[in-house]
Amino acid sequence: MKKYIIPIIAIILIIGLIVINLTFKGKDNNLTKIKVAEVTHSIFYAPQYVAHALGYFEEEGLDVELLLVPGADKVTAAVLSGDVQIGFCGSEASIYVYNQGQEDYLINFAGLTKRDGSFIVSREKIDDFTLDDLKGKTIIGGRIGLRMVNL
User: Fold this and answer.
1) What total of structural domains would you count in the chain?
2) Do residue 124 and residue 139 come from a single domain?
3) Between vectors from CA 102 to CA 89 and to CA 106, what angle results, nearest 5°?
4) Residues of the domain holding 66
């Protein structure tokens, strides 16, 4: 009898692992897959990143894949082709497609930010910061189109 105990325990463990694996795999198959193309990773999308990291989308039945797609034209093309379901970018590419008379064009339905945001970051902590502290300093723009400014 003793020589049968170890094989029986091993079989029970294997069956248990298979059941657990199939249970979790079944949950993943029930999730709706959504691809989101972002023109840039931005602090303005922080709530989305937090929700993604903490599994809130999965709790709502969504398997969200975040993709960095540089350029509003490329985000628009990805949405129009069906490669992604949601695109985060400015409205300019949608306007270009519409103005070309295309039958299939995007409709922008939300403005996530009212203005393009900028942040002033220092390597050292400055207590009681004011804009006067920038006199004589150089500011480097954070993306293409912004340039270095001497104040």
Assistant:
1) 2
2) yes
3) 30
4) 31-150
